[in-house]
């Protein structure tokens, strides 16, 4: 998702809100594919979702997700999604899908 000079301010806000402000969804989606390290999470978000999250923000989000019990740190230092994290990701996906379907029918 990119913002260029032709992007309206409203669209730029939307892009920021569905990327940086909901970074937790992307982190859980990456970890749902398998345990990995934070620097790899950042790389995979850029590859799969086409935006580059700020490093400090990513680490903050991962810290909060761990604190909430949605991810956990493995013995080797990688992170993995928990069952609660999988449930949160499913709920987020359902919410976004429902929104998209509603908007498509307007």
Walk me through the topology:
Blueprint: H1 9-17, H2 23-32, H3 38-49, H4 55-68, E1 71-73, E2 79-81, H5 83-104
Antiparallel strand pairs: 1-2
Word description of this protein:
The chain has five helices and two strands, in the order ααααββα. It has helices at residues 9-17, 23-32, 38-49, 55-68, 83-104, and strands at residues 71-73, 79-81. The mean pLDDT is 93. The relative contact order is 0.14. Helix 2 (23-32) crosses helix 5. The protein has a two-stranded antiparallel sheet. With 106 residues, the chain is mainly alpha-helical. The two termini are 23 Å apart. The radius of gyration is 15 Å and the shape is globular. The chain has a single domain, classed as Arc Repressor Mutant, subunit A, CATH 1.10.10.
Number of domains as seen in the coordinates: 1
Instruction: List the total number of helices.
Output: 5
What is the averaged pLDDT score? 93
Q: Give the terminus-to-terminus CA distance.
A: 23 Å
Radius of gyration: 15 Å
**For the largest beta sheet, what order do the strands appear in spatially?**
1-2
Count of β-strands = 2
Largest sheet: 2 strands, antiparallel
Name of the CATH homologous superfamily: Winged helix-like DNA-binding domain superfamily/Winged helix DNA-binding domain
Summarize the structure in short.
By secondary structure, the protein is mainly alpha-helical.
Task: From the structure above, extract its key features.
106 residues; 6% strand; mainly alpha; 5 helices; Arc Repressor Mutant, subunit A; two-stranded antiparallel ribbon
